[in-house]
Structures are given as C-alpha cells and as structure tokens.
Amino acid sequence: MRYTGPSCRQCRREGTKLFLKGTKCFTEKCPVERRPFPPGQHGQSTSRRRKVSEYAKQLREKQKIKRMYGVSEKQFRNTFEKVSSLPGITGHNLLAALESRLDNMVYRMGFAASRKAARQLICHRHVEINGKTVDIPSFQVQPGQEIRVRQHARENVGVLASLEQAARGQVPSWLAVDKDTFSGRMLERPQRASIPIAAQEQLVVELYSK
Q1: 20 to 30 A Cα–Cα from 198, which one of 19, 22, 91, 162?
Q2: What's the CA gap between 112 and 103, in Å, rounded?
Q3: In this structure, is the dihedral angle defined by the CA atoms of residues 162, 106, 93 and 139, taken in order, positive or negative?
Q4: Nearest Cα residue to 201 out of 96, 61, 67, 44
C-alpha cells in the first residue's frame, strides 16, 4: 500500500530532506530542521538511544531511498532483483534503474515539482514517449527516447510553475531538455557520479544479500 500521510513525517523519520514536496522544500521552513528527531511521542527519546546496529543502518538506508523515489516495497524489491544479475556494481545499477523510471525522468526534466506530481501527470495521460501516450509511472525509459508533455497539458499551472522553478537549477548531464517544446531526452544511462542523491546504496545491497 502506498503511503498517503504527511510527507514531512517521512523526512523526519529518515533524518534528512527527501524533497517529497518539490519546491515547497526550498520555500518553507522544513520540519526536519525545526524538529530534528523521529516523529511520534517517543521520537526525542529514541534519537538518544545507544549505538545503532548494522541491520538498522541498512534498513534505514533502504527506506530512505525507497521513500525518496516514492515506490512500494514490492516495486523496490523487484527492481533490485532485476538489476542484481546485470554486470557492474549492483548498487549503482539499482539507482540507475530508479532514475530511469518515467516519473523520475519527468521530475528531473522539470515538468513536475516532485515525483508525486510527476506520477499524477503521467497517470492522467499528459505524457508521451516517442509520440505515444504512456500512463505507467514505472515505465523504464531507454537512452534516445523522447519524453514530451502533451499539447493539452502545456498550459497546466503546475507544469508551468515547475518549469519556472527548474530554470534556476541544473539538469543532470545525462538528460537534454527543451523547455520551449516541453520535451526532453535521455542521452545515456545515468552513472552514479551524475545521480544527485546522497545515499549509501551499498547498504541496501548488503541488506538484501542476507
């Protein structure tokens, strides 16, 4: 079941900003900064507990990455199983697969303020890949494929506001975006050095390898 509660509660649980609310994470005083301890009535006391076990560290890292990309436990585990047989470093392959999801691509290109908003845009059939409408957020985009916001959605207030905000940031090097035509393209499969998230993906590999 997908989490539908307050986004900031998830950030507080992981002890870091997960940027689940898009631009609001930059414009609002984040609860993670105001209350730097886990949510709940025992949050402050648990933050002062004895040393955390290795298993707990691995679990928290897995939860952080999973929540950051907004995927379910089943989706996350299935993605790990698929990349575990690929050549290369499994942790890097895992992040590359998550970055290649259509909802993440729409977010990275600046057409949505958050991955959650990107999923809504996709499910409402506002996004095309190579001229064909795709309404599956987990669709794996391949290098060379073009992502485009459909014509009828280009006046969407959320899309325009997101593009304006994204213009102040930097698009990852493995993406090319044309804001005039509301389109973008994956130039190459993302490499770990160009994936802008702070995560210790090796801990997830260790967790699932037990």
Answers
A1: 162
A2: 9
A3: positive
A4: 61
User: Side chain identity at 183, as an amino acid letter?
Assistant: S
Rg of the chain taking only CA atoms, in angstroms: 18
Q: How far apart are CA 199 and CA 141, in angstroms?
A: 22
Structure tokens at 26: 């930059």
**Identity of the residue numbered 19:** F
* Burial zone of 51 (CB within 10 Å; 0-12 exposed, 13-18 middle, 19+ buried): exposed
d(CA 163, CA 157): 10
Residue-wise pLDDT for 67-119, tens only, equals 999 999 999 999 999 999 999 999 999 999 999 999 999 999 999 999 999 99
